[in-house]
C-alpha cells in the first residue's frame, strides 16, 4: 500500500491526538508517533479496505503507550497550560522551582536553549523559528520535543509559569529624521526584553534576579540587558541593577485617570459641546479643501484640532523635551500594558521637516468614538500629496502610486490626481486656531484649575526614578481631558456616529 496515503490523514491524526492529550505540544508529539508507527507497520497491512480501522486501532495502541510514558510527566510539566489557569502563589517552593528550571535550561546545549527562548519567550511559531535559523520545520519540531523531554527527565516538579512571558506594547513620542523617507527607528519587539523592562519598572533588578524571575539563563538576560542599555530603554542604578527608563501605562494608571478625568470634566461637557458647535459652524465656512470627507468626519476633525489648540495655548503643565536617544535624535518610549479602555486622544504627526524643506505636515487622530488612528505618512508621500494638491500630479510617480494605494489620492478621468483627505493652508489654519481660542477661552480658567488637580494625582502613580520622563504622560493629560466632553458628546448624540473605516487625518501647511 502506498505510504503517501498517510499524508491525507495527517490532519485527522492530529485532531485525534488533540482530543487525547493535555497540551498542543503533547498533541504534536503523539500525532508524530502515530504517523511514524503507521509508516513502519503499513507494509504489513494486506487488505487495503481495512486501512482506516487498522490506522485507528494502531493509533489507540500508540496512545495508550504514550499516556503511560507521559502520565507522570504531564502532571509535572506542561508548556501549554490554558491561560485561565491561575499561576501558583510565590513562595519558597516556587523560588526553588524557578531556580531549578533555570539551572536545567542552562545545562542544555545551545541549540536547545535557543529554540526554547525563541518558542516560549519570543513567541515564534515553528515555521518562524525554522526561517530564522535556516532549519527544516521538522528539525525544529524534533529539537523542541527533545529539549522538553530532557527538561522533563531531569525535573520532577516544573511549572510553566516560569516560562510565561508578559506582554507590552511600546509606543514612542518626539521627532526624528529617520531614513530618507522619514521612517521611524526600529523598536523593541521581543518578549524577553519586554519582560525585563516590566520586571525592572517598579524595582531595579540585577541579571541574576531577572534570571530567577523569568526562568531564563543569566547569560541570555545579560545580552538583552546590554541591548536595552544601548537603546536607552534601561538605565543602570548601581550595584549591577537596572531600572526601566521610560513610563509604562498600566491598567492601574488608566483606571485612575479615567475615573478622575471624568469626575473633573463631565460637569463642563455641555459647555464644551456648545462651544464646539459654534466652532464647527464657523469652520465649515472657511474655504479649506475638504477632500472626500463627510460633514460628520470633519466635525470630529474639528474637535481633535481644537484639542491641539487648547494644549498649545493653555496647558499649564511643563512641556518636557524628549531625551536624546542612541541615534542622536529626540524621541522616547512609552509602554502600554493591559486592556482597560481609557479616554485618550491618540495622534500621529509627521512634520516632514527634513533639512527644513517640507511645507506640509500630516496629522492623524483617533481614540474617541471608534475613530481609527491612521498611520503617519512618510516624508516623500507628504511631498507627493502637496504636489497633487497644488497641481494635480507629481514627478515622484512611485510616491503617487503609494498614496493612491493607501487611499490618500484618487486618479481623475483626465489622468490627474486629487487628494481624499482635507488640507488647511497656513492662513486657513491660523483662522481656525483663532476661532477656537475665541470660543474656548471662557472655559479655560476652570479647565486649567481642574487639570492641575488631576495632574498632581496622576504624577504620583509613576516610580520615583522616572520623575523626569513621567512629565511626558502627565503633560498629555491636559489634552486628554478634552476627550471627556468629546466622549460625552458622542454618547449623548451631539456627535453622530463616526463613518466606519474612514481615517481622521489632515494635511496642514506649517510654513511658506
Give the biggest beta sheet.
Answer: 4 strands, mixed
Order of helices and strands: HHHHHHHEHEHHEEEHHHEEEHHEEEHHHE
The count of DSSP E runs of length 2 or more, i.e. the number of strands, is 12
> Residue-averaged pLDDT, rounded?
82
Strand portion: 5-15%
Task: Return residue spans where pLDDT drops below 50 for at least 5 consecutive residues.
Answer: 71-95, 154-163
Overall 3D form: globular
* Secondary structure tally, helices: 18
Distance between the termini: 79 Å
Class by SSE composition: alpha+beta
Helix content: 40-55%
Assembly annotation: single chain
Radius of gyration: 29 Å
Can you walk me through this structure?
The model is unreliable at 71-95 and 154-163 (pLDDT under 50). Helices cover 53% and strands 10% of the residues. It starts with a helix and ends with a strand. The protein has 18 helices and 12 strands. Strand 9 (409-411) and strand 10 form a beta hairpin. It is globular and about 90 Å long. With 512 residues, it is α+β, with helices and mostly antiparallel strands. The strands form 4 sheets. The chain has a 4-stranded mixed beta sheet with strand order 7-8-12-11, with helices on both faces. Strands 1-6-5 form a 3-stranded mixed beta sheet.
